[in-house]
């Protein structure tokens, strides 16, 4: 399901990022992003993040070199108060104020996310390739029946 025109104010995230950019070529991003999620979970990064503004986890796609066919950066973290100092060993990311299209992924994880992205890639959405993100909240806890919101940055 696609919902248009969500203006979101900027916010700050603290978490971890891929050391290098990844790419969708040869499913490389599935490997890279999956291993970052594994690190996020096994090292209990959520517990290391101060001043969280909620329990949601954000997975962010940014620094696109062009479009979904070219390299991009990936970050996983939680929303924090903008004044929060980033602890040593963690990274921060400022998500700018932007207009978004919200796409809801529903179903079995992680397949429903892959399917949603394929729909996005094949859609007529006027993508900005700015900062896109997925929000994992209480609705995504049950991997058999998950729901995840994906926010795609769009040109105005």
Features:
156 residues, alpha+beta, 17% helix
Q: How would you characterize this protein structure?
A:
- This protein is α+β, with helices and mostly antiparallel strands and 156 residues long.
- It has two helices and eight strands; from the N terminus they run E-E-H-E-E-E-E-H-E-E.
- It has helices at 28-42, 111-121, and strands at 2-8, 11-17, 57-62, 73-80, 91-95, 98-107, 132-136, 146-153.
- An eight-stranded antiparallel sheet has the order 1-6-8-7-3-4-2-5, covered by helices on one side.
- The longest helix is centred in the first third of the chain and has 15 residues, at 28-42.
- The two termini are 20 Å apart.
- The mean pLDDT is 92.
Q: Which secondary-structure class do the elements indicate?
A: alpha+beta
Number of strands: 8
Distance between the termini: 20 Å
Q: How many H/I helices?
A: 2
Indicate the multimeric state.
single chain
Mean pLDDT: 92
Strand content: 35-45%
Helix-strand pattern, N to C?
A: EEHEEEEHEE
Biggest sheet statistics: 8 strands, antiparallel
Give the uncertain stretches in residue-range form: none
Shape: globular
Rounded to the nearest angstrom, the radius of gyration is 15 Å
Residues in helix, %? 10-25%
Strand order of the largest sheet: 1-6-8-7-3-4-2-5
């Amino acid at each position: 399901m696609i919902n248009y025109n969500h203006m979101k104010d900027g916010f700050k995230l603290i978490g971890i990022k891929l050391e290098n950019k990844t790419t969708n070529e040869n499913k490389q991003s599935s490997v890279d992003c999956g291993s970052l999620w594994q690190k996020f979970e096994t090292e209990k990064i959520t517990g290391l993040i101060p001043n969280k503004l909620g329990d949601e986890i954000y997975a962010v796609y940014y620094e696109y070199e062009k479009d979904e066919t070219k390299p991009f950066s990936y970050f996983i973290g939680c929303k924090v108060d903008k004044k929060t100092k980033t602890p040593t060993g963690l990274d921060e990311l400022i998500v700018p104020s932007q207009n978004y299209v919200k796409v809801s992924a529903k179903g079995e994880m992680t397949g429903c996310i892959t399917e949603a992205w394929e729909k996005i890639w094949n859609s007529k959405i006027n993508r900005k390739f700015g900062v896109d993100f997925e929000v994992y909240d209480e609705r995504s806890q049950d991997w058999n029946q998950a729901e995840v919101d994906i926010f795609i940055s769009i040109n105005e």
